[in-house]
Amino acid sequence: MWESFSLLFYLKKPKKYVDGPRYVYMRITVNELIHEISCKRMWDPKRWNPWKQRASGHQEDAKALNDYLEILTVKVFNARVELYNANQDITAAAIKKIIAPCVSRKDKDSLSRMHVARE
């Protein structure tokens, strides 16, 4: 079962954007089919490294965002393995359906609490 797979984090520019923070989006591509999911976080483009697809800097807020993006990355790859083990088609839509609850507001709060508890 061959497939092409990629995961990308980027800052999406709103339509009437002038200046300030942008929403962080996750783009899942499987076999050239793309699905985008908002990570429900905003970040300043001046503090974003597009090559690393992560927040730049050593400030606490940058570390928290990068930890959140790493958690989402792990959840995406786990969803992919879960679909593979269940002999289901691995599609961007199927992965999005599995991880959609992970990027809800409720999960955002629990991830923030988890990050604080780890320190």
Task: Describe what this molecule looks like in 3D.
This protein has helices at residues 60-85, 92-99, 105-118, and strands spanning 5-12, 22-30, 33-43, 48-49, 54-55. The protein is of the alpha+beta class. It has one domain. The strands form two sheets. It has a three-stranded antiparallel sheet, covered by helices on one side. It has a two-stranded antiparallel ribbon with strand order 4-5. The protein is elongated, with a radius of gyration of 15 Å. The termini are far apart. 13% of the residues are buried. Residues 110-119 have low confidence and may be disordered.
Topology overview:
Elements (H helix, E strand, L loop, with lengths): L4 E8 L9 E9 L2 E11 L4 E2 L4 E2 L4 H26 L6 H8 L5 H14 L1
Antiparallel strand pairs: 1-2, 2-3, 4-5
Helix pairs in contact: 1-2
- Beta fraction of the residues? 25-35%
Termini distance? 41 Å
Helix content: 40-55%
Secondary structural class:
alpha+beta
User: Which spans of ≥5 residues are poorly predicted at pLDDT below 50?
Assistant: 110-119
Largest sheet: 3 strands, antiparallel
Domains, number: 1
Mean pLDDT: 84
Order of SSEs, N→C? EEEEEHHH
Instruction: Describe the strand arrangement of the main beta sheet, using strand numbers.
Output: 1-2-3
Radius of gyration: 15 Å
* Count of DSSP H/I helices: 3
What's the shape?
Answer: elongated
Kindly state the number of beta strands: 5
Keywords:
119 residues; alpha+beta; 3-stranded antiparallel β-sheet; two-stranded antiparallel sheet; elongated
